[in-house]
Amino acid sequence: xxxxxxxxxxxxxxxxxxxxxxxxxxxxxxxxxxxxxxxxxxxxxxxxxxxxxxxxxxxxxxxxxxxxxxxxxxxxx
Amino acid sequence: xxxxxxxxxxxxxxxxxxxxxxxxxxxxxxxxxxxxxxxxxxxxxxxxxxxxxxxxxxxxxxxxxxxxxxxxxxxxx
Amino acid sequence: xxxxxxxxxxxxxxxxxxxxxxxxxxxxxxxxxxxxxxxxxxxxxxxxxxxxxxxxxxxxxxxxxxxxxxxxxxxxx
Amino acid sequence: xxxxxxxxxxxxxxxxxxxxxxxxxxxxxxxxxxxxxxxxxxxxxxxxxxxxxxxxxxxxxxxxxxxxxxxxxxxxx
Amino acid sequence: xxxxxxxxxxxxxxxxxxxxxxxxxxxxxxxxxxxxxxxxxxxxxxxxxxxxxxxxxxxxxxxxxxxxxxxxxxxxx
Amino acid sequence: xxxxxxxxxxxxxxxxxxxxxxxxxxxxxxxxxxxxxxxxxxxxxxxxxxxxxxxxxxxxxxxxxxxxxxxxxxxxx
Lengths: 77, 77, 77, 77, 77, 77
What we know:
6 copies of one chain form a homohexamer.
Chain A: H1 16-34, H2 38-48, H3 52-72
Helix pairs in contact in A: 1-3
Protein name (chains A, B, C, D, E, F): Hexameric tyrosine-coordinated heme protein
Organism (chains A, B, C, D, E, F): Cyclobacterium jeungdonense
């Protein structure tokens, strides 16, 4: 069931903005790991992109992933 | 789907208050990344601004983003 | 939409108890940032103060904010 | 609305077990800060003590508060 | 209402696996602290063990407790 | 009720990608610890893999577990 694709080479990014983008990517890859069928995911996507509660819950995942990435990059200081 | 706008130049802010404002901004930008259509977001906004459960869930996202920002700024000490 | 009021001068508090009070204040200010209309907030308040699930969710926000404040104060050691 | 009672003198406890008890106390005090009426809280209590989802959500609050307390005590090492 | 049983002598465990088991135990003890009646808990247990949303929420509590335990053990390095 | 299988020998992984896979494994093992019957889990699995809210909640668990693993590996730096 687990995807064999390598999607995380490193937690280090050049800029905080790239850190945000990596956080979003990691959140999406978790969804893909649990639901590997891309057709099903496409259908679900329209579902959560228009549902406020799910959008907020997704933002929480991104915030948590970003905290890890920010720590890894020593907050880009 | 991902916005190409640079919205996070740095996690460093001058004051804790600015840190709060950055946390709120990051929470909003996550919503925008998942739902890029601003018209749809506008409609959803009125939805969550008057729904207690969603307001609380949004506050949780802000709290998590703020923790990261506060760590980045060594808590403004 | 963002409040211009300065409500967070510092994360440093004299006592752990004051840290709790600051955590509660930050949680409330996040709600106010998303829903700036105080009349609407007043109506919503009675809603969540009598709904167990929302009370617990609010406690989670306070716990997260407090963790940040406690770290900022080196746990008042 | 905020309780003036001092319920948190210190985050330092003698044992991990006392740390758990403090975490539970803090979680309860957050509820009391938002819903100051003890009669209302008593009614709500029977509500969440028999509702699995609310019990689990309360456990999450306790876990977060405990993490803060454990860090404050350097994990009682 | 609080259980007087000592269930947490130490956060230190011999192995990561024992750390997982302690995390699960702590999550369960929180439930017991809020709902001290074991008969009621037994009934609720069958409820959440067959409800996906509650299983996932329980996993979240375990993940948080485990993070604390892992930090206490310096990640068993 | 607790599984006696050793599924966590170490938090140390060779790569960040392996850290993600371990995070997913830990999340799954928590479910298995609470619901030990594999037949029941199989039925529940199809349930959450097609339910957006549950997929997002699962991603949150993975994000939390991954943060712990990333800290254990000093972020693979």
